[in-house]
Amino acid sequence: MSIRLGDPRASSVGLFRSETMSLVRLIIPAESVHETIINLGDLGLLQFNDLNADKSPFQRTYAHQIKRCGAMAQKLRFLKDQIERAGILSSSSSSTQKDLEFDELEVKLTELEAELSEVNSSSEKLLQSYNEFLEFELVLKKAGSYFSSSRSTKSAYQRFSGQDSTSTYQHELEEFSEFSRNTPTYESSLLLEQGLQMKTSKQTRLGFITGLIDKKKIESFQRILFRATRGNMFFKKAPIKEPMLDPRTNEMVEKVFFLLFFSGEQAKTKIIKICETYGASKYPCPEEFGQRAQMMNEISSRLAELKATIDAGNRHRDGLLSMVSYQVDQWSVMVRKQKAIYHILNMLNIDVTRRCLIAEGWCPVSAKVQIQDALDQAAADSNSQISTIFQVLRSKESPPTYFKTNKFTGAYQEIIDAYGIAKYQEANPTVFTIITFPFLFAIMFGDWGHGICLLAAVLWLILNERPYKKKKLGDIMAMAFAGRYVILLMAIFSIYTGLIYNEFFSKSFTFFGSSAYHCSDPSCSQSTKSGLIKTRSTPYWFGVDPVWHGSSTELPFLNSMKMKMSILFGVSHMNLGILLSYFNAKFFGNKLDIWYQFIPQAIFLNCLFGYLSLLIIVKWCTGARADLYHVIIYMFLSPTADLGENQLFRGQKYLQNSLLLAAAVAIPWMLLPKPLILRKKQHKKMHRSAHGVKESLDMESPDKDYTSHEVHEGLEFREILVYQIIHTIEFVLGAVSNTASYLRLWALSLAHSELSSVFYDKILVLALGYKNKAVTIIGVVVFVCATIGVLLCMETLSAFLHALRLHWVEFQGKFYAGDGYKFKPFSFSPISEED
């Protein structure tokens, strides 16, 4: 059932309660459905319900269009990748061409992809040929240099034509011998033996192979060749100074030139297979100098032609990419929007006449006028003769939760949403968390020197907000940037509590006047409270008196103060949570929760721990020496015993007994009445149903069906009773454990103060005491690193997590259900921001 427009609760209630929502139905003419979805996406205030949840994605009407959008997105990613590889910067200048329609864009992208693919394929083939010719040219130069240095062209021709002289062959054996010095002994003997055999067969013809191989493979390649030919080969290598582009892998590789002599066709076959296995590039090298020179000229001319062709292809590709570089982002947004539109269209029902589509969804009541205007504008833009019909429906379904937030409150709302999305229109803890969260953090982190450092860091993030939004940040940096306004208040409150603690990197200052005490002993750091002489009746007017810092009673004094302060803040925080449970029960009209949950819980908590807070305040005001531990413990163990010196005021014993009795009565008050009353209501409802008495739907409250959520509806009495027993035990035990949990404020504050003191006294002071400048500089660097790493990073994270636990468990556990679901309207804003 929807909320009536005349309902006063239909107005926005701000951040404390979620926006009032309505379930609406849209009957959209087919000719204007596309424009309607576009306008609603631009507005971003309507959450569509899936009316085809029983269908798979492939069975839906617009599955083919979504597939088309996916293919177009893939082509756009291909274009972006090509633009990035070409090093072309996307221009933000406006296009002089007219905007393309969706179908025209699909054709355009298909043509661009085909043309670029063809250009890239041709360029790759040409580049591969160009690199092969470069290697071929290098091989010819290296081989020619080797042949020229070893013998004249004529003697080389004579050797390879089989007319080898004894002196030439002797020169070859000398080179074999020189190579064998770098080979194992056994292989060297084989090589010499083969050389002697070759000398006896004077007419044996030698062959050779030239090529290039990866430098990393050369040693293994040489050993395998030697073993495969049984030493019957001569291997010559020369490193290439600069890395070369490998034609096979298109990667820059350091290569080595090799020249391999062998004997026999069988050895040649083995060598070729080994070269193929190692990926060595083999190139033919003519035996005659004239032929090599002619081949070098042909290769040079061929390289020039390939270079010109490759440059022309690159210019054509770059020109093509430059023309579309300024439109790619726009096209990408357009495709993503179209895909989102088709996803929404798949959630709609198509009328049997196929003339209109039916949509249902949730929208804020305050946005109805804006939605109606968007629908009318869509009908006018599409020249539709029929406007979209906008209906408000009645529903028993719980609406989604929607809070209007900004960049300041949004971060705090995310902290609450991480625990659980608020139930529809229940009290939102964010309103109070904006103040209580940074304040509880500051109690644990109180040091105004560290607070200033934290403030400086977060102000840098806030002042550079726009540049950081455009950057892709790491996980930790992204979290810090998203919570910059949370950190801002954490830093401000840390400065405030640091001034109260009177701590600046563990040191105290007299900013607010002189101390109310003076030391009777010249050694003030060794004095006790009895050694301090009070010089005036008025105390140090803001924060902790600086005389306590450095005295022998500093730790007992600060321990006592911070522990009692933690209890006071903890009890106040829990009372706020219980009070919010009252406002929830009153808002939803649940009188049972008011009488049998809020009242007994408030009585139980305040009769025990509220009374403890009262004793702390009375002791502070009167300056009494009563032992509060003794008072609270014997309040349970011996209620009638005399308090003696622990009595703080007249009638304290009778007040304690009355409070203890009230706390004992509150337990069955929470436990029994609510299940019994619910059982009676169920029996009465069943009795009426049996006699055919039914309540009229029109007589019900217009928003009762989805705002008063009865947890126990439809349950048996035993289940209700067990649930209430668990809830009662949890609250009673939790009252004790939650109060003790707030002592973490004291513990972490003490730890932060002591760590800061240790770093200052044991690192900075000791380093400054040395006359050696190097030791002083090292000490200062260590102090700065320890302060940043431990106190500003680790301690900040620790205090943040403990404050988070106090809010999620101790505070929100008193009233916050967190079982709702978030309002997720259809909007184009995330698509544009992502781009």
From TrEMBL:
Pfam families: V_ATPase_I (PF01496). Its main location: membrane. One of its GO terms (molecular function) is ATPase binding. It is found in: Membrane. Keywords: Coiled coil, Hydrogen ion transport, Ion transport, Membrane, Transmembrane, Transmembrane helix, Transport. InterPro entries: V-ATPase_116kDa_su (IPR002490), V-type_ATPase_116kDa_su_euka (IPR026028). GO terms for biological process: vacuolar acidification. Belongs to the V-ATPase 116 kDa subunit family. PANTHER family: V-TYPE PROTON ATPASE SUBUNIT A (PTHR11629:SF63), VACUOLAR PROTON ATPASES (PTHR11629). Essential component of the vacuolar proton pump (V-ATPase), a multimeric enzyme that catalyzes the translocation of protons across the membranes. Required for assembly and activity of the V-ATPase. This is V-type proton ATPase subunit a. It comes from Ceratopteris richardii.
